[in-house]
Amino acid sequence: MGKHRASARSARQFAFVLGEISVLNAIEFADVSFRYEEGAPFAVRHLNFSVAEGEFVAVLGHNGSGKSTLARLANGLLTPDEGTIFAFGVQLGEKNLYDVRRNVGVVFQNPDNQTVATIVEDDVAFGAENVGLPREEIGRRIDFALKAVGMEPYRTATVARLSGGQKQRIAIAGVLALKPKAIILDESTAMLDPRGRREIVDVVSRLNREEGITVVLITHFMEEALLAGRAVVMNRGEVVMQGTPREIFGRREELLTYNLALPRIGVICEKLRAGGMDIGDTLDAATLAKEIAACVS
Amino acid sequence: MRIVAEHLSYTYNARSPFETAALKDVTLTIEEGEFFGIIGHTGSGKSTFVQHLNGLLRLPSSMKKYRPKKPKKGEVLPPPVVLRVGEFDLTDKKTDFRALRKKVGMVFQYPEYQLFADTVRDDVAFGLKNFSDTKLTAEETDAAVCAALEAVGLDFSELKDKSPFELSGGQKRRVAIAGVIVTRPEVLVLDEPAAGLDPLGKQEVMELLHRLHKSWCKTVIIVSHDMDEISENCTRAAVFADGSVKAVLSPRELFCRTEELLALGLDIPLTARLCALLAREGVAVDCDFTTEDFCRAVLALFGNKRGERT
Fold it and tell me: Which of B13, B16, B298, B308 to mutate to test the interface with A (most CBs of A within 10 A)?
C-alpha cells in the first residue's frame, strides 16, 4: 500500500508540473478508498484515476462497480475513508467544498429528482443564487446556460410539463449557470428515451468541444462511450481497463469477465467471423455493412 | 385472455386548459399467448393504453348507458367503443375490477422503487393477501411466495427474511416482478422492464420474461424504447404515434419499413440498419431481424458465394 501511495503522489506532482505549463488535471483520485458502512466491502478501493482538463472520458462498469460512488466522491458528496481527491489542483476538504462544487458539477440519473423550482428560469438560477451572484449576472448566466442546452424557448415554461430529456437539459443548465470547469454525468441518460438520450449526448459533446468543459460520462450505453476520447472500465471499485473506446471494445474476452456485455454489433462481428467471414472489429454499422458486402458480392 | 380494443379514446384533464388527447380512436387486438411489444415516442399514448388493460384508467362508466339505442333520423352514431380483456368487458361499470387486476399483472417502470415491506417475503405476499378471497394460512402464503421467487430465479430460503432494500438492483427488480406474478396473472404487462440496468442485467431480465412466458403467464406485453429488444423478443409489435396506432406487425414486417419508423422519431434495430445499408450496396438480406437470423442469412449468402467460386 505504501508503494501505491508513493506512486500516486508522484503522479500528482507530475500532473501539477505539467499544469503549470498547460495541462492540469481536472479531477484526480490518489489512492482513494471508500465504503458506505464500517465492515461493508469497499465501494471504491485504492483508486488512482485522473481526468485531464478538457478531456471527455466515459466510465463503464456493471451495476455496483463503483461508478456512482466515484461521481459522488468527486464533488464532495461523499468523503473518502483513505486517500485524497484533487479538483483542478485543489485538495478536497471541508473548507473548500463549495468552491469545488462550483468547478465540478454533477448531473444525476432521475430528472424528476433534480428540479427544485416550478419555472424553468428559477430552476436554472437556483445554484447561481445560492452562491450569491449579483442579480444581473444571474440573468446573463441563465441566458448562457439555456442557450447552451438549446432550451431558450422554454425559459418561462413549467418544469413539470417538460419531457424527461428536456428536464435533464434543464438540470445541465442549472449546473452550467455556475460556469463549472467540469461536468460529471452519472447515468444521466438512463431514464430517457432514445431521442432524449441523443439530446443530452449532443449537448455535452458540444460543451466539451466548444466551451472546453471537461466531461465525465458515466453510462451503460456502449454507443455513448464511443463519443468519448478515453474510456475507463470499473470493476469492484477499481479501474481495470483504460484506453480509447475502440481499444476497450476490442478486448471482448476481458470485458465479459467484468460482467460487461458486448454491444450488439460486436456480437454480430463475432458470429460472422466464426462463420469464416473476413470481418474486422468495427463498431460502426456503415463499416460493417461495407465489409459484409465485400465478402458476399 | 384475448385483448380487444376498438375505437378507444382517452383525454387527460378533460375540459380544462391542460386538456390533452392521449388516445385517439385506438383499435388493437392482442391474441392470447403473444409476446407483444408496444413502441412509440414519449407521449405517444403507450402508457395510457396499457393502463387501461387492468382498469387503472377507466372509460367513462356511463359509456354504454348514454348510448342511444336508435339514432335520430339522419344522425350517424360513432362506432361503439369496445374494450375486452378475456371475459371482462371494461366498458361495463359492473365489471369486477378486482378479479380483472388479479388476471392482468402490471409491472411499472422502475418497479424496485415500489418495494416497501420489511422483508422480501412480506413484500411479495402483499398482493397475494390483498387479492385472495379467503384468509391464507402462513404455509399457503409461503408456498406461493416461494414459487414466485423461484420463477424469477431467486432463492426463497436465502432471501425471505432479508430486507428488499439490501439487495442489488437486479435482484430488487426481480423481487418486484415476483410481487406481481404471485397472483398468477394470465397477462403480464411490463413498462420498460429492462430500463436502467446494465447490458448484462438487461439480457437477464429478457431471458426471465421468456421463461415466465413459457411457464407462468400466457401473454406478455412489454412497452419498450429499445428496438433491439423488440426485434429480438416479440412476436408482434404495435407502433403508437400521437395517440393512435400506426401499425401492428411482426418484427420481420415492421423493421422493413425503416423510413416510416425514422419519420415517427423512432429508432430501428441494428440489424435493420445493417440490412438497409447492405441494400444500398446491392446485397439483399432476408431475415426476421434477430441477431441470430441476420447472421444466418448473411452466412448463407457468404456460403453461396464461396460455392460459386470453387
Answer: B298
Q: Within 13 A of B263's CA, how many CA atoms are on the CB side?
A: 5
Determine contact, residues A1/A7, Cβ cutoff 8 Å. no
Whole-angstrom distance, CA of residue A63 vs CA of residue B169: 7
Q: What is the pTM of this model?
A: 0.83
* Tens-digit pLDDT profile for residues B137-184: 999 999 999 999 999 999 999 999 999 988 888 889 999 999 999 999
Q: Are strands B3-12 and B82-85 parallel, antiparallel or unpaired?
A: antiparallel
Q: Which residues of B21-38 are buried (b: 16+ CB within 10 A; e: fewer)?
A: bbbeebebebeeebbbbb
CB contact under 8 A, B168 and A285: no
Same domain flag for B241 and B293: no
A288 touches chain B (CB under 8 A): yes
Question: What is the domain range of residue B310?
Answer: 269-310
Where in chain A is CATH 3.40.50.300? 2-262
Check residue A15 and give its pLDDT.
Answer: 47
Residue B134: its pLDDT value, please? 85
- Predicted confidence at residue A22, as pLDDT, reads 47
CATH code, A2-262? 3.40.50.300
Look at chain B and report how many structural domains it folds into: 2
Looking at the structure, tell me whether residues B246 and B171 fall in a common domain: yes
ipTM: 0.80
Measured distance CA(A297)–CA(A269) in Å, rounded: 18
CA A29 to chain centre: 15
